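Hi there, hope your week has been kind to you so far. Do you reckon you could talk me through the fold, stretch by stretch? Thanks so much in advance, here it is.
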Amino acid sequence: MVSERLCRPGTQQQDAWTYDRVGNWTMSGWTADAKADMLTASPGSKTYTYTPRGSLKEVYANQQQAQTFGYDAEGLLTFKSDLQQTLVSLMGWDHAGRRTELTPNGGTPWRFVYDPTASVPAVVVEDLNGTPQAFYVREPDGRLIAREAGESLQYYFFDLLGSTILIAPAAENNPTDRFYYTPWGETVTAGARASAISTTANPYRYVGSFGYYTHHQDANLADWMQLGVRFYEPELGRFERRDPVPSAVIHGYAYADAKPTGATDPSGLATSAGVSGAAIAVWFFGCPGYAATEASVVGLVLPKGYPASDKLLHCIAACRLRRCGTIAMSWAWGWGKEIHDFWRNLWGKKDSPVDL
């Protein structure tokens, strides 16, 4: 990922990223150690220290306030404080490397129940002090479908990467939440692309379909996502500890091989392949069957006699078909635009404002 350009009538915005030989950001204010691995400084006068095993140990702001971290014998994060040492998050893990407990700031513990057969980290129950707070309906492979809390049932809609773009309640069919993200996964909260976020306690945003967990119940972890056994900070584009399997190409803290718009890492240990033209074709031509299957699955989880269930299922199928077509056509249009611009530039023709 080297740049992003957003074009709207009358305005343009472009962001760029530069890297060293192993993938560390080298923009102004960013530095890494002599091994070109551990981050030593980032904008905002923050400095970083690490344990001998390569796990984040302390973060200093202006060389004074220190944020501290603790790990168990397996290297899994068990303790995180804020810079003022006033908020503390405690975590517990099971033998399979699944985080099963989170206690925010010495308060009531949250516990998580997982689907052990899923191929991604798939929380199916969020429990607060013995009382279930939310149930998550999922595909057999763990991909997210819906969230049920009390008498409320809400459906998730995702982009091709797997990020949540809409949340819609079953009772109304009108979206309550709309999400936009930066290329590295931060939720956009200001400007023309500001997300519209309700009070829903929703942990699944960026790549939420595949289990990326955003902490709605802990302010101390709000800027971190849990990706399996590691934690990802989108503001830095890095994990909090080094990958236990070293790479000869890119540094051990890198997220998705520095390809955040086309690759994912649900386990925190292995980057999944990006989206190809073949994948788009399979997505597009298999879409009618997939839409019908998705509507059928949702129909199975609806309570008997649920109001307007037939209308809802038809809506889900229609939305899936429309979304598949939009994604495929957007991909094709994007490549067509790139080819068009290449030939125009080759022949010395400049783009007009209309072309932007």
About this structure: The radius of gyration is 22 Å.
